[in-house]
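worker-03 picked up job from queue 'complexes'. Input manifest follows; two sequence lines, order preserved.
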Amino acid sequence: SQTIHQWPATLVQPVGSPLSLECTVEGTSNPNLYWYRQAAGRGLQLLFYSVGIGQISSEVPQNLSASRPQDRQFILSSKKLLLSDSGFYLCAWRRGDNSPLHFGNGTRLTVT
Amino acid sequence: QKEVEQNSGPLSVPEGAIASLNCTYSDRGSQSFFWYRQYSGKSPELIMFIYSNGDKEDGRFTAQLNKASQYVSLLIRDSQPSDSATYLCAVTPYNTDKLIFGTGTRLQVFP
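worker-03 finished. Artifact:
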């Protein structure tokens, strides 16, 4: 069976500090990978998605970036966090265009 | 116009009733449609997916799709207090790898 791991579960970072969130998927190969952000009381905003190693599509450029160094690894980064970056960050995977999306447990980021 | 729209609610129904959740989408060529449930502080979990016009049933849940009207709905029969959560509609627009979510409808089932 497939599993998705996302860490850390919670993170408190000061404004201007860097960020690195990591996500890995097990039990499948060549998954589509996604990063979403959910601000408090809001919907899911698609940030980045990837259909293969080194292929990143950006929906919300801002001060965030994503990388996919390995087939089942997806990393979300920032060089300098803003207060507005606070939120619930969710990594997800799916097999193809029309298959369901499966989420990790999420990282709750608070920027102070 | 938002790509995927849902009424934010809350939708309040008594225990045992049918809860009806609705979603509209803007891309007429969208091909796959999903309903997720999200409890407060947790990640979304998949409830149903539907690809073709008509109804699809799974236990107490029924998804309904009408592509001509660009409308997808979720019916929850015999609603339970444990069904109280936010329900997210998601759509894959035509010829993309994206999955776009609505803002969700909060459902409250009272005893």
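worker-03 released lock.
The mean pLDDT of chain B is 95.
The longest strand of chain B covers residues 85-92.
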